[in-house]
Fold this sequence. Notes:
Elements: E1 2-4, E2 11-13, E3 19-24, E4 38-40, H1 61-65, E5 71-80, E6 83-87, H2 92-113, H3 121-124, H4 133-141, E7 144-146, E8 151-153, E9 158-165, E10 178-185, E11 191-196, E12 200-202, H5 237-240, E13 251-252, E14 255-256, E15 259-260, E16 263-268, E17 271-273, E18 279-285, E19 293-295, E20 298-299, E21 303-307, E22 310-314, E23 322-328, E24 343-348, H6 351-368, H7 374-382, H8 391-399, H9 404-412, H10 435-442, H11 445-453, H12 468-474, H13 478-486
Parallel strand pairs: 2-12, 4-5, 17-24
Antiparallel strand pairs: 1-3, 3-9, 4-8, 5-6, 5-10, 7-9, 10-11, 13-14, 14-15, 16-18, 18-22, 19-20, 19-23, 21-22, 23-24
Helix pairs in contact: 6-7, 6-9, 6-10, 8-9, 10-11, 10-12, 11-13, 12-13
Amino acid sequence: IRVLGVPQTGAKSRVETQIKLCLQLVTDKGEKVPLWSHLRLPEYMVAKEKLKTKNARNPPDHAMNISEKGVLNLEATVVCASDIPKKVLTCLGCVQRERKRSQRKKENKNAKVNSSTAPSADDTNKPMDLDDEKTMQLEQRKILLFNCSEIVDFSSGDTILPTRITCYCRHHNEKVGFCIYFVMKDYTNTVIANGMSPPIMITDDHKSSKTKIGVGRKRPRAEYDRPMRLHHNPNSMMRRAFYNTSGNSIYQNGTISGYPLPRISRLIPSEGPTYGGVEVTILGSNFIEGLTCVFGETPALPTQYWSPNTLVCVLPPAPTPGPVVVSFKECPLTLMDNSEEVVFFTYTDDSDRALMELALQVVGMKMTGKLEDARNIAMRIVGGNDNNNNNSASLALQTGENNFEAHIITTIGLLDVLETEHNSISLQNRQQHTMLHIAAMLGYTRLCSVLIDKGIDLNLQDKYGFTALHYAAWTGKDDVVRLLMRG
């Protein structure tokens, strides 16, 4: 489990402050694993009763209809950074404070509903019943509170959890900070992954100027009452702070309009396909809303702000493979005083593989009407003993023709002999590319012609709103451009 949203060192917060933690389930190579649709949080750690599944007035469809096999169960424990095995529970004083806080909110809500009903002072200050051992144990376990629904979407392999730690480090003689240890288990209670956050110092020192998290900008409280949605706000005040009235950036003594220059320290992943479309996490410091990440000369739109240390964007396509410099549109590289701070992203040419996978899925969709794994479809074609029409495609897959374009044309030739009603030629992959998008980028004029003859949609757009014609023109494939213009 990769935990983002907290700087590796010097993180500080308060018991009243919500930290936007991003949890990602990743492989050893750092690639996200989108194999489970939802993540279930511990019920007692859900901050508001109305956000718990059992209390929801209108439970979301996913809470009632999702399969348990598609749900991961999250466990979370707060530990001391200086003594990892030491599990932290909320102290008695903080339990009382949290209870009073909750009681005040309830009374304020009731007062708004019925202004004639005054809250009782006795109720407000009613002490916790310490004789009820079970109640006390449960309250102490609420060292961590999540201000979101009990079941959250996890289909992309990550989610954002507004999180609050309810006890101070000094109450446990902790000098380094608290770490949050996460474990994810599947429906059989098998541990799938685990991970830990960097140390977070929970303090009541309001005057400290050290690194803080989650306090840079206050949000309306209602924003946490609904599921988190990443969004891009090009008109934000922070973005406008980068520009003066003439539209030029303002650079002053190593800052932009008074803000420290943003620094990139790491990209996850640090390489990706030339056709783009994969999610890239940018780690660093001094990030603010409104920054636009640029790969080479191509901006990643939108670039989503998660925290002062984390940005997320969708990788834009590139005309050629190779390394490119990653920078910010609002912060030219000339401002960087140290060349060692330049970070590179490496584009790899995976277009052939992506094209073959999509071609096999197009054939598989035509065969069965269902989207299947490309590898299974290839095995079915190679082992298709009962259908003589598979012979040419099977031979191509087994021998691995030197002419890759001819290989693909032979494979999709099966569409002409499969007698089914399924129309799959315009099938799109995760990046919303059709075969025509990738063929145009590769300059496969013959394949593009075949696809057009088979009725592929010329105007379908990918994640960036690009058609096949965009890619052909951008990569300088003149013959393909002329072909697509004729339609």
